[in-house]
Amino acid sequence: MKHIKVADLMTDEVVSVAPDTAFKDVAKLLAQYGVSGLPVLDDEDRVVGVVSQTDVLAHAAPAPHPVEETARPTGSPTAGDVMSTPAVTVHAEETAADAARLMTRRGIERLPVVDEEDRLVGIVTRRDLLRLFVRPDSEIRRRVTDEVLTEVLGVPTGDVDVHVVDGCVTLDGRIERRSQLPALLSLIEQLEGVVAVASHVRARTDDTLATHAGRARDAQAW
C-alpha cells in the first residue's frame, strides 16, 4: 500500500529567518508573504523554533502593568527573543495523515518539514492536507483496483466491480478466500479520500472454517 507522504504535499520553497533577525523584519515577512508563521533556523539549517503571528502580536502588545525602566531589555528584539521553542516539526517521510493528526493535536496551522538530520526541507500547511479529502473519485477507484485488489490481495481483474461516488466506495463481486474480506475493507478505508465503504463481495471458499478446525485439533492434542 502506498500512503501519501508529507513530501508529496509540502512546499519546498520556504521563507525562514535566523535567530538574530530583527523583530520588525519578522513582522514584515509575515505580512509580505501572508503566512501565519516562519521557521527559525540555526547556521546548519536546523529548525530551532517557530515565530508566529501570535508570538509577534503578544510581544508587540503593551504589558498589563508598567515595567520599571531598569527592567527593560536593551537593544531591539529578535526572532530568537519571540519565537516558540522547541519547534513542532514533521519528517518528510511521515504520512500526511500523521501530520494532520499532529496539527490537530497541537492546534497549529503549519509544520516545518525536516529530513533525517532535522534540517529544513519544506513546509506543510492545513490547506495542503485538505487535498487528501478532495481526491477525485477516479483516482480513488484506480487505487482500490490497482493497489488493493491487484497488488496486495492478488484478485484477478474483473472479479470485483468498484464504484466510487463522492468518496463512497461500493464493491460487488467475488474473491477467492473469506479470510481476505477483513483485509480488503481495512485497506480501502485507509486510502486517502475514502469516506465510506459498502461491500457486497462474497468469497468462493471459506478458509476460516479450516483454520478454526486446525486450532481445535491443536487444543485437543494438548
TrEMBL record:
Pfam families: BON (PF04972), CBS (PF00571). Residues 136-205 form the BON domain. Keywords: CBS domain. Residues 10-67, 83-139 form the CBS domain. InterPro entries: BON_dom, CBS_dom, CBS_dom_sf, Diverse_CBS-Domain, UCP036990_CBS_BON. Residues 61-82 are annotated as: Disordered. Gene3D superfamilies: 3.30.1340.30, CBS-domain. The keyword Transmembrane does not apply. This is CBS domain-containing protein.
